Description:
With about 160 residues, the chain is of the alpha/beta class. It has a single domain (about 5-155), classed as Mannitol-specific EII, Chain A, CATH 3.40.930.10. Helices cover about 45% and strands about 20% of the residues. It has six helices and six strands; from the N terminus they run βααβββββαααα. Strands 1, 2, 3, 4, 5 and 6 form a six-stranded mixed β-sheet that branches. A hairpin with a 2-residue loop joins β2 and β3 (about 60-65). It is globular, with a radius of gyration of 14 Å.
Amino acid sequence: xxxxxLIAPEAVSPxxxxxxxxxxxxxxxARAAQLxxxxxxxxxxxxxxxxxxxxxxxxxxxAIPHARISxxxxxxxxxxxxxxxxxxxxxxxxxxxxxxxxxxxxxAGGDHLKALxxxxxxxxxxxxxxxxxAANKPExxxxxxxxxxxxxxxAA
Length: 156
């Protein structure tokens, strides 16, 4: 699974201003609702339910909130870089500033785990994260997120 299967250029934001995890999840739910047609409330409640199971903060300033949602037509990703890091209760208790929302249809089965693995691999790269933190335009962020996929396609 490639990152381009998960995110579109219009699903990237370079400077979201929120102050709490709840505000972040509400904003992500609103963005996801616009892109998917799934009601914002359903997305938000699904994200809250998943966070109750344990924080989706990966550490080192990165979070991958995710949920399975009935009625979602396809896998959907949304990437935001926060203007200022916020507390997120991640595994290292460091504030978060890079967030990749991942939503999958309720019946996605193994695709949910494949998508999570794809995003996790991408954001484990310290170099990639440094570049994402330095970028301030959506098209640059999208290019950075899809850079590996683009390189593989050019090499083929």
